[in-house]
Amino acid sequence: MKSAEKDAHAKVESRVWSYSDAKSTAGEETFAYFDTHVVRTMPETAMVVVDGEGRVRFVELLAFHEPDDYLPPGKWLRQLDGRALDGDLFVRRGIRNITGASLTSEALTQAIRRVLAIHRLINAK
């Protein structure tokens, strides 16, 4: 956990992670991770699909219990596609903030960094 927290620059609170892996008909391997965290006072659950190279394929919000005003738009979520765990995967660096919902953008970006750090550890070769 300490290694994942260091790589993610985010708190990793659980030692148990749910994920699924699959291969496409073309043989491309993907992994779907599920991260539940608190945004402001209520939880959200994100599914982060990671490709075999350790990059985000896409992010889908499965549950969002904050007011709808704080819900990130699809266009904002798409900026996460193709991202790797690097120094640009932070709000106000390589990730745009959501005006009026900065806690949402920060919480979700931290979740992505956590998932990518855990993925790196699980798939270390």
List the SSEs and their pairings:
Elements: H1 2-8, E1 19-23, E2 29-38, E3 43-51, E4 56-64, H2 74-78, H3 102-122
Antiparallel strand pairs: 1-2, 2-3, 3-4
Give a written overview of the molecule.
This protein has 125 residues and is of the alpha+beta class. It has one domain (2-122): Sufe protein. Chain: A. It has 3 helices and 4 strands; from the N terminus they run αββββαα. The chain has helices spanning 2-8, 74-78, 102-122, and strands at 19-23, 29-38, 43-51, 56-64. Strands 1-2-3-4 form a 4-stranded antiparallel beta sheet. Strand 1 and strand 2 form a beta hairpin. It is globular and about 40 Å long. The mean pLDDT is 91.
List keywords for this structure.
4-stranded antiparallel beta sheet; 4 strands; 125 residues; alpha+beta; single chain; Sufe protein. Chain: A
Widest sheet: strand ordering: 1-2-3-4
**Uncertain regions spanning at least 5 consecutive residues:** none
Q: Main beta sheet: strand number and arrangement?
A: 4 strands, antiparallel
Strand/helix succession: HEEEEHH
- What is the tally of helical segments? 3
* Fraction of helical residues: 25-40%
> Could you say which structural class the secondary elements and strand pairing correspond to?
alpha+beta
* Strand tally: 4
Estimate what percentage of residues fall within beta strands. 25-35%
Task: Tell me the radius of gyration.
Answer: 14 Å
Structurally, the number of domains stands at: 1
Quaternary state of the chains? single chain
CATH third-tier fold name: Sufe protein. Chain: A
Shape: globular
End-to-end separation: 18 Å
Mean pLDDT: 91
Just name the CATH architecture. Alpha-Beta Complex
CATH class: Alpha Beta
